[in-house]
Amino acid sequence: MKAMRRFTVRPVLPEPLRPLSDLARNLRWSWHAETRELFQSVDPGRWAATGDPVRLLAAVPPERLDTLAADRRFRLRLAAAVDDLTDYLEGDRWYQRQEGSPPAAVAYFSPEFGVTAALPQYSGGLGILAGDHLKSASDLGVPLIGVGLLYRHGYFRQSLSRDGWQQEHYPVLDPDELPLTLLRETDGSPTLIRLALPGGRLLRARVWQARVGRVPLLMLDSDVEDNDAAAREVTDRLYGGGSEHRLHQEMLLGIGGVRAVRAYCRLTGHPAPEVFHTNEGHAGFLGLERVHELGTPAPDGPGLDFDQALQVVRAGTVFTTHTPVPAGIDRFDRSLVARHFGEGAELPGIDTGRVLALGTETYPGGDPGLFNMAVMGLRLAQRANGVSTLHGQVSREMFAGLWPGFDAEEVPITSVTNGVHAPTWVAPEVLRLGARRVGTARAEEALSVGGPERWDAIGQISDQEIWELRRTLREQLVEEIRTRLAAGWRQRGAGPAELGWIDTAFDPSVLTIGFARRVPSYKRLTLMLQDRDRLRALLLHPERPVQIVVAGKAHPADDGGKRLVQELVRFADDAGVRHRIAFLPDYGMAMAQKLYPGCDVWLNNPLRPLEACGTSGMKAALNGCLNLSVLDGWWDEWYDPDFGWAIPTADGGGDLTAKETERRDALEATALYELLEERVAPRFYERGREGLPDRWIGMVRETLTRLGPKVIAGRMVREYVETLYAPAARAHRALGPEQARELAAYKERVRSGWAQVAVEHVDAGADGPDGDGSPAQLGATLALRVRVRLGELAPEDVEVQAVSGHVDGDDRISGATRVPLKPAPGGPDLDGRWTFEGPLALDRTGSFGYTVRVLPSHRLLASGAEMGLIAVPAEAAGQEAGVLLR
User: Where are the stretches annotated Disordered (predicted)?
Assistant: First the structure.
C-alpha cells in the first residue's frame, strides 16, 4: 500500500548531544575535516552510507546515542567542535580587516548552488561555482546572502541501460530530511513570498534557509498547499519544463528572491544588501523588483520614476555572464513576458514597454521578437564580468552590439577568473601533508585566503613524500572505480558471474587520466575515440599503459549528448579494454571528490573558445594532478609547460561545415594522441637515480606551488570584493534620490541631443624634439585642435578624446592611449562650434595613428562607454578623420 502522506520524524538527541544538531545544520561540516571525523565516529558504517549528518542522526539507534552521551572523550570532542564553529562564525576574518567601508552586505543570486552532495541543488559547473563562492565568502568573512530556489527533485540521478543509454531518475527531496530550516515570522508562521501571475493567479513560496558557514542561503519553494497544481510545480526540477515554466522559475528567483532577502533582513536584523550580484541571467528580474521598490512612495517623500530608480539599481548591481555563445542564454518570446508584467500581473506600476525594452536584442543579428535575459542583465548592471580573461574577451565581442561604435576591448565587461573552494576539493591526505610542514592553521589559511607566500612551504616536501601521496590517492581512486563499476553493472542487469573482472580492473601503478563534466557537444566527450585502434594501443601499451576514468551527465532533453555517452560506454564495455577505461554513471560532488585527487592527468578538450572557464581542472590541480587541455578558459590564462600540456587547436571554433568539423576533430585528436604517446606517458614512467619519476614529481610540485594560489576561490572572492563589490557599493551610496534624479535627467538630455553632436574638423600642429616642426619623429608632440558641434549640450556634458596607438594594415588602432582634450577659452564660434585642444605625444615608433571622438561625461557614470554613445569624425572628412603616420 502507498502512504497517503509522507513526513520525517526527527530523533530526540540526549541533552549532552544536542549541539550535534547545530553542527549538522551548518554546512561548514562539508569542508571542515575535524567536524566530519566527529560525525564519522558517531557511526562509521552509517556515515559511509550517507555522508550526511542530518540523515546520520536520524538513523542512529537510541542506544548508540545514549552510549555517546555517556562517553566523556566524545563529549570533549563535541565541545571542541562547537567552540571551533563559534569562533569561525563570530571572529574577525579577512573582510573585517579591510580598510574603508566595504559593502554592509551583498546578495548573491544563482539558479543553482552546489554546496554539498547532501543538498543536491546543482547540475554542473555554474552551481558548483556558486557553492564555492558562498563557502569562500564565509571563510573570508564577506557578508554575503545567497539566494536560490529549492527544487523538489533537484537535477536528476543518472543510470545506464544495458546498451549504455542514459536514463534519468528524479527522487523526491524532503526538506525536513535536508540541512534546512524554514524562515518564520515572529508569530511562528512560515514566511510566504507572493507573486502575481496572469489571470488573477498567485504564486506563493516558502523560504528555506541553509547555513553555509557564516553565509545564509535562502531557497524559495513553491510546493505550498495554497498554490494551484501548476504553481506548486514551479520549483519541481532544475532546468526543467517549457518556456513559461522557466519564466516562472526566473521570476520567482529574481523578484521573489529580492522579497525573500527583505524578509530575512527584517526578521533577523541582517544588514540590507548594498550590492546585488546576479550569477548569470536567470535572476535578472531582481533589478526590476528593485526598480519597483524605489518607485514606491516613502514616508519622507515620493518614490523615484523608472529612469531615476534604474540609475540606483544599476549602480549597485553586478552581473556575471558564464556563457561564451548566444545559444547558451535564456530567451523568451516577448509576448510571453508581456503577459506577466503590468496591470493584472507583476509589478503593475511599471510600464510593460519599459520592461520589454530592457531585454530587446537591439543589435545586428538580434531577434527583436525575443526577450534576452543576459541583455537585460547587462542593462540593469553597471558592472559586468566574464569568468576568465579569454571569456571576458569573448563576452566583449559577443555583446559589443550593445555598445555600437566602440571597439570590443572598450565594452564595459571585465573578467574575474573563477576559482574553486580548496577546503572542499583538496583531499584530506593532501591537507595533512601540508599541515605537517607548516601547521594546521597556516595550511587552512593558505587554502582559504591564498597568497603565494603561504604555498612556498610545499617546496620543502620531499620527492618521496609527494610520490607516496600520489600513489595513495591513486589507490583510493581505483577502489572507488571498482565499487562504482560493480554497482553500475548490477544496475544494468549484470549477474554475479559477469562481474569477476572488476576485481582487477584498473591498476594503482598505471598512469590514470580523468575526464568528468557535463556532456554538451562542445566539450567533446568522445574526441578520444577518433582513432580507436590508437586509443587501444595507449591503454594496452606493454610498458607505458594508461587508464582512463570518465563521468558526465547529458541534459535530459539532449539526445545528442546521450548518444555521446552511449558511444563512450559501448567502447568501455569491450572486454579487451574495460579494465583500462570506465564510464562511471551519476557524476556528482561525492564522486568528484574522489576523482580529482586520484587522477594523475586531467583531460579537457573543448572547442576553443567555448569553455568559459572550466574549473574541474583547477580542483584536480590542487591535489597535484597535471592538466592536459586545450588552451581555453582558465588554462589559456595560466598554462605553463612546467606544470602541464597544451593540446594544439585547429582554426574555426564552432562555425564550420560538417566536413570541416570532422577534419578539425581529427587534427586535434591526433595532437592529443601524440602528446600522450610521446610526452605524457614517457614522463610518468621515466625513473631517476632514486627510482622515482623525478621530472613528473617536479611538475606536481610546480602545479601545487604556482597554480595553487591562483585557482582557489579565496583569490576569486577577494577580486570580486576589491574590483566589483566595493566600487558598486560606493556608486550605490553616491546615488541618493537627488543624485539619481540628476543622473537620469542628464542621460535623458544627452540621449535626446546626441544626434546633433559631431566632430567637424581636426587640426594638428607640431613641435618636434629638434624644433624643426617634424611630427613623425619619436618624442614629437602634435598640437591637436578639434572643432566639435554639440547642439544643445555643453562642453561639461562630454569628453573629447584623442585616441592613438599602433595601427595594422587596415588602419585599426591597437594598444590605444586615450588623452582628454580641453575646451579652448572663448566659447563657441559664430557657427556654434566648440574648440577642444591638447598635446598628443608620439611615444612609439612604427606605424602610428590617431583619431578623435566625443563621449558623454558625468561624475556619476562608471565609464565613458556606459551609455553606448560615441561621436567620431565622418569618413568623408578624409585624413582629418584620423591621421596615420608611417
Answer: 809-832
The one-letter amino acid code at 353 reads: G
826 three-class SS: coil
Quick one: which of 743, 868, 866 has its CA closest to 382?
866
CA distance 123 to 379: 27
Indicate if the pLDDT at residue 880 is higher than 90.
Answer: no
Q: Which of 274, 282, 288 is nearest to 316 (CA)?
A: 274
**Residue 671 one-letter amino acid:** A
Report the interhelical angle of 737-753 vs 306-315 (nearest 10°): 110
Give, as one character, the DSSP assignment of residue 30: G
Per-residue pLDDT reduced to its tens digit, 141-170: 999 999 999 999 988 999 999 999 999 999
Cell numbers linked to 694: 623525478
* Conformational region of residue 501, where left means phi above 0, alpha means psi within -120 to 50, and beta covers everything else: alpha
299, burial (CB in 10 Å: exposed 0-12, middle 13-18, buried 19+) = exposed
Question: Distance between CA atoms of 605 and 409, rounded to whole angstroms?
Answer: 27
Between 843 and 748, where is the model more confident? 748
User: Among 327, 417, 466, which residue's Cα sits nearest to residue 618?
Assistant: 417
What cell numbers appear for 394 in the block?
569573448
Q: Which of 91-100, 453-462, 588-597, 628-637 has the lowest mean pLDDT?
A: 453-462
Alpha-carbon span 852 to 236, nearest angstrom: 55
How many Å apart are CA 545 and CA 676, to the nearest integer? 10
Q: How many helices (H) and strands (E) does the chain have?
A: 32, 27
For the sheet with 781-789, list strands across it: 758-767, 781-789, 833-841, 813-823, 798-807, 848-856, 882-885
C-alpha cell of residue 169 = 531518475
- The answer, yes or no, to whether residue 131 has pLDDT greater than 60, is yes
CB atoms near residue 829 (< 10 Å): 11
- How many Å apart are CA 380 and CA 319, to the nearest integer? 8
Give the separation between CA 387 and CA 632, rounded to whole angstroms. Answer: 12
* Cell numbers describing residue 775: 611630427
Global pTM exceeds 0.85:
yes
Give how far the C-alpha of residue 426 lies from the chain's centroid of Cα atoms, to the nearest Å: 19
CA gap 328, 336 in Å, rounded: 20
CB 363 within 8 A of CB 357: no
HSE at residue 727, side-chain half, CA atoms within 13 A, is 15
Establish whether the linkage from the previous residue to 271 is cis, with ω within 30° of 0.
no
Cell numbers at 814, concatenated: 591597437
- Average pLDDT over the chain reads 92
CA gap 370, 568 in Å, rounded: 37
- Position 342 scores a pLDDT of 82
Distance separating alpha carbons of residues 56 and 36, to the nearest angstrom: 12
| Burial label, 41 (beta-carbon count in 10 A; 0-12, 13-18, 19+) | middle
Residues 6+ apart with CB under 8 A from 756: 789, 790, 791, 792, 793
